[in-house]
Amino acid sequence: MASYQVQAFQTIYDICYNVSGSIVVLDKLMELNGIESYTAEIPFGTQLDITGIPIVNNACVLWASQYPFYSTRLSEEDLQNQINNLVNTMTQNGKSNS
Question: What gap in Å lies between CA 83 and CA 80, rounded to an integer?
Fold first, then answer.
């Protein structure tokens, strides 16, 4: 059995790109692993079966071997804090340049 170990913050879409270079294998990957939701959270370290998953885009897979695809998830509070910090920085920079 060929397998793939899920890394932190990876979604099923990220895994498709890392394994095959395309999301055209999404449904097959989900079926192989009993994943029933396109938005399922897959725990870090999970071993996924990738037996029979073809490489669709070799260039993408080669790139992903050096720079893996992964999604980050921020809590709503963390996102709002980052937005506020960005706005504050922009406002301060705008005042100091006037």
Answer: 5
